Automatic annotation (TrEMBL):
Its main location: membrane. Pfam families: 60KD_IMP. GO terms for cellular component: plasma membrane. Belongs to the OXA1/ALB3/YidC family. It is a multi-pass membrane protein. The keyword Transmembrane helix applies. One of its GO terms (molecular function) is membrane insertase activity. CDD domains: 5TM_YidC_Alb3 (cd20070). PANTHER family: CYTOCHROME C OXIDASE ASSEMBLY PROTEIN COX18, MITOCHONDRIAL, OXA1. The chain crosses the membrane at residues 12-39. This is Membrane insertase YidC/Oxa/ALB C-terminal domain-containing protein. InterPro entries: YidC/ALB3/OXA1/COX18, YidC/Oxa/ALB_C, YidC_ALB_C. Keywords: Cell membrane, Chaperone, Membrane, Protein transport, Transmembrane, Transmembrane helix, Transport.
Amino acid sequence: MNVFHEALYRPLFNLLIWLYDVIPGADIGFAIIALTVLVKLALWPLTNASLKSQKALQDLQPKLDALKEEHKDDKEKLAKSMMELYSSEKVNPLSSCLPILVQIPILIALYRVLSDGLHVESLSALYSFVANPGAINEMFLGIVNLGERSVPLAVLAGLFQFWQTRMLLARRPPKQVRGKPGAKDEEMLASMNQSMMYFMPVMTVVIGASLPGGLTLYWVAINVVSIVQQYMVFGKKAKS
C-alpha cells in the first residue's frame, strides 16, 4: 500500500493541487479537468494501441464470418483458419487487453486522489515544493459544489458514456451471412453490445449521482477525452 501511495497516489495528488494553485480562478473543477487530460495524454499510447487492436478486429469481422460459415461443421479447421487469418493480417486478438490492464492501477490512484482532493486534511500529503493553498474552493464555475452529489453532472456523464460506448460497438455480421450458423456468435455479441450501450450510461448516471461532484466531473472529462481519441483512431481508419 505504501508503494501504491508513494508511486501513484501522492504524485497525482500533488499534481492536482499544483494545478489548482497555478490555474487562475482557484477553481478545483478546472484542476480536475486539467489533471484528467494530462493523465489521458500520458496513457495515450497505451489507449491508442488498445483501440487500434479493437478496430483491426472489427475490420476482420466479415472475413471471420465467412470462415465460420465455410467451416461451420469443423471446429478444428475453423480454429486453424482463424489463427492463419490473424497471422496473415498481423492482428493479435489479445493485444487490446494488456494496455487496459496497465492503466488500471493509475486510474484507481486517480480515483482516490479525486475522492480526497477536496478535503483540507489531505493537504498534509503535499510535497515541500508544492504550495499549500490552505483551503480548497469546492465550487465549480461558481454554481456546482464538487464536494456534494450533482445529478446534472451525473446525467452529463451518462450521455457521454452512451456516445463513447456506441462508438465501440462491434458491427453486426453482413446481411448475406446474418442468421446463418457461422454468424450466430457475432449476432449474440452485437446483441450484448447493444444492451451495454444503454445499460452502461444508466449505471453511470446512478453511480455518478451518488458520488461527490468532483468524481463525476472527472467521469465527464475522461469520457470526453476518450471520445476524441476514439474518433481520431476510428475516423482516421474509416477515411483511409
